[in-house]
Fold this sequence. Notes:
Layout: H1 4-20, E1 27-32, E2 35-41, H2 44-47, H3 54-66, E3 74-80, H4 84-93, E4 97-102, H5 109-113, E5 124-126, H6 131-146
Parallel strand pairs: 3-4, 4-5
Antiparallel strand pairs: 1-2, 1-3
Helix pairs in contact: 1-6
Amino acid sequence: MQTDEHFMQLAIKEAMKAYEQDEVPVGAVLVMNGQVIARAHNQVELLNDCTAHAEILALTGAFQYLGSKYLPDATLYVTVEPCLMCSGALYWSKIGSIVFGAYDEKNGYRKSTGGRSPFHPKTQLRGGVLEEACSELMKSFFKQKRT
C-alpha cells in the first residue's frame, strides 16, 4: 500500500543522494495518482545555484513531465519543512498537498510567516512524517561538517 510513509521513504533516498554529494540532505518526490512523476535532491553546490533546492527541482521536473504549470492533483513529499523561497514556488504551483518530514526552526517557512501558511488556500499540509529519520539525516550532516 502506498502511504505517506512510503513516499517519504523515497524522498529520504533522494536526500541520501544529496548527503553523498556533500549537499544539504533534502530530498523531494512529487506524486500524482499514486505515481512518482518527479524526484530531486538539493543540488545547490553542484549547480552553484542557491535556488537549486530539492522542492524547486522536483517542481520543474513535474512541470516538464506534465506540460503544465499547475499541480492541483499532486502531492509533494519533502524531507524538511520548505523554506520561504520554496513555499512561494509551491504557492504558485497550486499544489494539492505537501507532506514534510522534519520541522526546520531556523529556515522553515513558519519562521518567516509567523506560523501562517504561505501556501495556496486549497493546499493541504502535513508535517512530521518520519520526522525522526529526516531530522537525524540533517543532524548527522551538520555534525560531520563541524568536525
